[in-house]
Amino acid sequence: MLCVTQVFAQNRTITGTVKAKDDGQPIPGATVKIKGSNTGTQTDGAGKFSISAGNGTVLVFSFVGYAPLELTVGSGNTVNAVLSPSSKQLTEVVVTSFGIQRQAASLGYSTTKVTGNDANLAKPVSVANGLTGKVSGLQINTINAGLFAPTRITLRGNRSLTGNNQPLIVVDGSVYYSDISTLNPEDIQSYDVLKGSSASAVYGSDASNGVIVITTKHGARKPSVTVSTTVDVENVSYMPKQQSQFGSNGGENFVDDFSKFGNFDASGNYIPYYLPYENQSYGPLFNGKLVPLGRPLPDGTIEMVPYAPVKNQKRDFLNTGYTTHYNFSYDAGDETGSIHMSAQDINSKAVMPGDVGRRDIFRIGGDKTYGIFSATYGATYTHLDKNTTNTGAVYDDLLESPLFVPIKDLKDPSSKYGNPDTYYNDYYYSPGQIIKSTRNLNAENDINANLALKLKPWKWLNLTYRASLDNIQSRNQQEFSGVTYSAFSKSNSEIWYPDPNGTGTIIKNPNDGAGTKYSATDALPSYGVQNFNNMLLTSDFLANFSTKLTKDFSFDATAGISYMDNKISWDNISQTALYFTPYNVQNFASTPSLTNFTDEARKLGYLGEATVGYKSFVFVHGSFRTDLDTRLSKANRYIPYYDIDGSVVLSELFKSITENGVLDFAKVRYAHSLTGNVSALAAGSQYIAYGAYQTMATYGLAGGFPYSSSGLGGYSLNPTIANPNIKPEKIREDEVGLDLGFLSDRITLGGSYYQSTTKDGIVYASVSRASGFSQALVNAANSENKGLELDLGGTIIKHGGLEWSMKVNWTHQTSKVNSIVSGVSALNVGNNSYAVVGYAYPQLEVYDWNRDPANGKVIVDANTGLPTRASKLSILGQTNPKDIVGITSNLKYKNFNFTMTWDYRAGHKVYVSDLGTTLDHSGTSITSVVAGRQRFVFPNSEYLNSAGQYVPNTNVEVEDGNFNFWPTLYQSVRANYVISAAAWKLREASISYNIPKKWLNEARFIKGATIGVSGRNLLMFVPSTNKFTDPEFANDTGNGVGTSGLGQLPPTRIISGTLSVTL
Amino acid sequence: MKMKKLTIFKRKGYIASLFATAMLIGTFGCKKGTFDINKTNPNSPTSVPPSYALAASLVGTANLMFASNSDQANNWMGYWTQSGGYTASTEYVQYQLTSGTGQGNWDNAFTNLSNYHAMLTNVGTAAPLANYRAIGMIMTAFVYQRIVDYYDKAPYIGALVPNNKFNYPYTDGGTIYKAITAKIDSAIAIIKANPTAASPGRSDIIFNQAGNADVATEMGLWVKFANTLKLKILMRQTEQSSGGSLGDAGVKAALAGYQTTDFLGIGEDATANPGYSSASNAQLNPMYWEVVADANGAPGYSEKYFRANALAVNFYQSHNDPRDAYFYYPNGQTPPVIRGRVYGSNNGTESNTLISAISAFGKDASGAYNGPTVSSPIIIAAESLFLQAEAAQRGYITDQAASALYNSAVSEAFRFVGVTNYSAAATTYTSQADPLTNFAASTNPIQTIITQKWAALNGIDPLESYSDYRRLGIPSVGVSIYLGNQAVHIPFRLPYPTSELNYNKANVPDGGTGIESLTSQIFWMPSNASTFR
Predict the structure, then answer these.
(1) Cα distance from B44 to chain A (closest Cα, Å)?
(2) Contact B503 A768 (CB under 8 A)
(3) Number of H helices, E strands in chain A
(4) Which of A1, A324, B149, B242 has the fewest CB atoms within 10 Å, counting from its CB?
(5) Residue A613 predicted with pLDDT over 60
(6) Which of A518, A543, A713 sits opposite B352 (nearest CB)?
């Protein structure tokens, strides 16, 4: 002991500077301590320190966010320390609701930040596509493969049975009503995905679904101009599986010999098995011989085609899509502010012939500071134009067409065999004819403007006033050009058949009962038009106080008022026949159905939030909001909503756990919130105006009234039982989480577990018709949601110029509907999806076979071997995935950058509806040939024997395995089209190359150039039961996910090339 | 230094307060009423005068009888079938019913009842509006009979009034029948007690289509309509005397004192017409739009799907009945003929060129097929006279002979569909040596009456024919010949709809699911109904 004392007795003054490794700047306020003692000091404003110490003394340098460093005092009088950042997680800033910035470490709820660049690597048209797979808890469904495909976004599943379940989109602090696809991905600085309803609690009665906070680019000090071009090439990647064995017959005659084209009956009459005008493929086997197709032409000729499948022709009917993206941006700035201006033009030709679209976005955004004043502003104008056909009708036509019909040649409706008169199919227009005659025109203009004025009179006070305007105007027009048939088509009843053995002889059957062309009825042109206008005005006033209460306690609080006014008007002139074109309402040939409405709602919210921090490691945050909502009665105004959350940064509290250099960051967090949701009043729309007047009983003009010939008026009851006392549904959510960083953030792991319960859920509950109404507006539903989210990130290799990092996220979610309304066991939530008491939300319900409840076997008739359709709907599985995995890989080597995003979803079902039924109806399905069109024993079936017992069916074959089974009975049992929706997808991959500066020496004005190749939806792996399509597709973006069909084009793969130059 | 700091503080404080005040005024400076904007609905009225409610409700009843709701009955009763151009329907030809089959007959019926109920509530007992009240009650009875005839048990007591639990217990068909019979009696009493009550005017689209009817005449016809409806209700119950059904003696007792003049008689068709026209699809006669054409003359929405059934066509043709050419259009062959398709036929070459299309309610006075403006039959005179003929044959009413009533009924049926010189044609028809046309030659008068009633109500009131079949097994309609069909007779009822199974499950009685529809009987059906073919 004495010896030691002696050593210390020889202390001298040691001085030095503490600097940060990342930026080389001095660190003021860093702690310098003598190891094993309480003696210590702090660095000054220049990062300098002085301390008394002797040789061999170990100095410990530490600072928030940096790994502690130990240095031993040697012989000199100077010790300089360079601290490495320990974890970005301590210093990261997250933009939260109303644009409030908070330190990530202080948040009690889960967030994920995605940079604009990361989301834009594969040059998606919609920013939503760039986020897919990259954030745990975030599910983005791209519901079709059409132009500017809509998306459905959910964070942590669905909290409301019939209300809006999509998160709020907040752009630069203001609520954004326009579709997320109206944003230019190139304009985005970052996305902060705030997953829980704690994060959104300050939005009060419409706040339950989390928030995606989008921060746009506001320019940079260095002036630069960036020009880039991307060209996308899009091709169909996946077609429903079809059979290639059998050709045309629609049950006209019972086919007993599939090798023959027909037969003669006892009295010598020709019985055709092959029908040249038929859309169904329940006829003879293909044999490659020439057969007449369609009906004879007026000139006495007929199209002769080989009776053999044409490979890939349905895929080939669809075009290669091309999309060009032109981007321009200009950034500039000085000490007091900066500006970003941009323009984007996207011009798209879809895979559906004739479908074209164009989107133009212009934006200006920036900020400016004058002393204690500052202003942030942004304005965007988006114009979208689409011209599309009736996808469902074309796709149906295409899929039904027997495989030997050369349908890919019929894109041109004026072609010899593709016009209405000559098209082979008696029942439909040719696909080219539909494309030409049916056009949907959609033009949309979105204007979004945002201005925030800030005043910072003192360091501790920040006043913000923000006003924003979001205007959506759209005009939709439906045009049908009409179809006129020739007199010949209307009168000709002659059909030419091949002879029974297909020797090439044609049997002309002038009048065999098939009659004239079935579809040969002229149709008038028609036209309809809708105009929609949605105006959202918001203004917020926020006062932010930020101060240190004592040396160790910090206090940060915001109080504010938020006002919202939403007005919607809609005018509809429904599609009505015209005498002739032009498409104009003046030319209507009959009285159109007219509808128009205006809706308006307002909200005034009082809000506050505060964070108290103890040192750098304990944070408690709370927020509060109450609303005056015009949609609700006076009694239901000012309902309080709140959030309370907190975090403890264990790695700062117990510094010692980081000392072994493995763990450098650890945080535990907890959040609890109570939020509301009134959007069920608006039938799930986020637009508050749609929720106006919903609580009143009303009458509506009854169908047909007023009768123009008599002037008689008539009104009938609104079928909803009114409820003036409706109150917001209440969502309680609890969340716990852990965030860890290892090896200087080389590995990060974040985990969250959440559970939410929804009480007083607002439902337009379908009720017994005996009530006199079809639905009742009630606060009655209860449901719950639970989930686990894990995010693992790591740098696998970091060596020389090579860096390979990966991020994996996994989301596991479960849900349960606890009750709907007394006595009500199921509630349709859109398409074929139902909220079913006791089951996960939502469930598919369609008709299944009659099954033995004991073993699930299909019950067949003991004599006919035929199963029967159940008379009640069966519950067939949930439509939201139980598990979602996202994997992102990023490989950098020198100037190369290679990224990939994979994702996997499983545990859910999809109903492919009319896509599935049309395949079996037409007999082009692969399913319909499993037994070679012969009789077969229905698999996994049983029958009731004469002793009254159910016995396994091993020998009773179905009465017919051809026309009287597949398109009729089998097709009518829709459970046959409910399949696993699991899929692995390579969502995107991109390779880019930054052209080295030295190559650009010749052109010094060029600051940088990048070329890249990327792809989207490159690969998809689905279970063998999915013979149909991308299981992510859906009819619409509503809550009733899990039903897709002919309205969705087949999935496509997109390959893009990009050249970007910065000047 | 100190002073300067203070100045800055003051100036900053001043600016800050000014900023805050301006923004607060901007945000809060709302006028009184800013947050009361949702008190008045700018889009829909919250109440309507009774005449608008009555007109819409009566149109609702006409739509309930037609506009797709009668498809099942028209098919099963041998009037219509599916076109050879379509894949066979499991519902029609295989009788594999689901809880979605015929759902409109339930859903639309209750919606219609609800509108009558709302009108009755609004009208109350006000004497000047007594006629609205009476018509509302009569039509409520009319719609309820349809519900019972399709579904047997149904919610009645406590129905049409929203309750907190949305729980609607079912009432036996027999009890409902009794209640609606009483309701008809009350309605008649109301009309008789309020002779000075005003006519509903043009909104009475059944007996005041021109809007200028004499109120006594108009309401006199409503009394006859009410009595005919009562007769319709009573005659259902002749074959079953237990389970709430009156049986032969009970019906006879209930009809004591009634004379043929109490019911709709010759020329007194109850048909609805709000002013049907070709102005738009929604303003067309609902059946015309379904099976004939739309407002622009293009095929109606089921024109290509439903075609003539060989059962009815063959009946008319084998009994020298001219009406095949009134109920159906000639086919597209040369020369055109009326041709039906055998029910459940699988022959796809039986195209629409070969099989006749369906016309809507016959022809007009000029001999042209009835067009888009034809009235919707509710209860036609012929139906009333056939009911009276059967009642007379059974000895329930005695002031006219069954044969006379029968001959009038056939003649009125010929008139309704527009047969040229209908009276003479009917006489010729009923004078054949054919026991199914000539009442005098009949060995089974009930069979002759009901067979002719079936022949008359083709597409007009297929539910009445369907009910007669389920009551008497007349005529023998058989079953579909579709391969694999296992049913031996047509279904006895419609299944309870999905809406009830999902939303009122605890109350739905047994016997009302799809497969049970083949066996589960309406309360008035005789116990031997399962032997009907």
Answers:
(1) 6
(2) yes
(3) 12, 56
(4) A1
(5) yes
(6) A518
Cβ-based contacts under 8 A for chains A and B: 354
Report residue A564: phi and psi, to 5°: -140, 130
The complex's ipTM? 0.91
Which residue shows structure tokens 């579904």? B151
The residues that bridge with A540 in the sheet, in sequence order, are A466, A562
Contact A713 B501 (CB under 8 A): no
Per DSSP bridges, beta strands A950-952 and A978-980 are unpaired
The residue whose two tokens read 């999806």 is: A833
Closest by CA position to A206, among listed A684, A674, A695, A679: A679
Q: Do B296 and A590 count as a contact with CB atoms less than 8 A apart? A: yes
Closest chain B residue to A866, measured at CA: B484
C-alpha A363/C-alpha B456 separation (Å) is 73
Cα gap B29→A127, rounded to integer Å: 38
Closest CA to A402 of A986, A1040, A928, A38: A928
Q: Are strands A12-20 and A48-53 parallel, antiparallel or unpaired?
A: antiparallel
CB-nearest partner of B90 from A769, A824, A969 = A969
Q: Tokens for A353? A: 């012939």
Confidence (pTM)? 0.89
Q: Chain A residues with CB inside 8 Å of B506's CB? A: 823
The arithmetic mean of pLDDT across residues A603-609, rounded, is 93
Q: Which chain A residues contact residue B520 at CB under 8 A? A: none
Q: List the beta bridge partners of residue A328.
A: A227, A343
Which residues in B lie closer than 8 A to residue A703 (C-beta atoms)? 59, 63, 282
Query: How far does A415 lie from chain B, in Å, by closest CA?
Result: 26
Residue A898 tokens read as 């290679």
Output the pLDDT for position A683: 86
| Averaged pLDDT for residues B90-109 | 91
Q: Per-residue pLDDT for A858 more than 90?
A: yes
Q: How confident is the model at residue A459 (pLDDT cuts 50, 70, 90)?
A: confident
Q: For A796-847, what is each residue's pLDDT tens digit? A: 998 888 999 999 999 999 999 999 988 888 889 999 999 999 999 999 999 9
pLDDT in tens, A260-307: 998 888 888 888 899 999 999 999 999 999 999 999 998 989 999 999
Whether the predicted pLDDT of A153 surpasses 60: yes
Q: Name the CA dihedral angle for B390, B392, B397, B401, rounded to a multiple of 10 degrees.
A: 140
User: Do residue A773 and residue B483 have CB atoms under 8 angstroms apart?
Assistant: no
Q: Which two tokens stand for residue A59?
A: 């100095």
Report the pLDDT value the prediction gives residue B29, as an integer from 0 to 100: 56
* A contacts of B499 (beta carbons < 8 Å): 766, 768-769, 774
* Shortest alpha-carbon distance between residue B302 and chain A (Å): 14
**Cα–Cα dist A147/A389, whole Å:** 11
Distance CA A872, CA A890 (A): 51
Which residue is it, tokens 């639905």? Answer: A775
In whole angstroms, what is the distance from residue A1010 CA to residue A1005 CA? 15
Q: Which amino acid is at A858?
A: V
Site of tokens 């760039």: A130
Distance from CA of A737 to the nearest CA of B (A): 38
Average pLDDT estimate for A323-346: 94
Q: What is the mean predicted confidence (pLDDT) over A604-628?
A: 92
CA separation for the pair A127, A117 (Å, rounded): 11
| SS3 state at A782 | strand
Integer Cα distance of A508 and A814 in angstroms: 64
Between B46, B48, B506, which is nearest A823 by CB? B506
Overall residue count recorded for chain B in this entry: 533
In a mutagenesis test of the B interface, which of A771, A848, A957 is the best target, namely the one with the most B β-carbons within 10 Å? Answer: A771
Query: How confident is the model over A961-975, as pLDDT tens digits?
Result: 999 899 989 999 999
CB nearest B38 (choices: A463, A576, A693): A693
Query: Token digits for B198?
Result: 């005003």
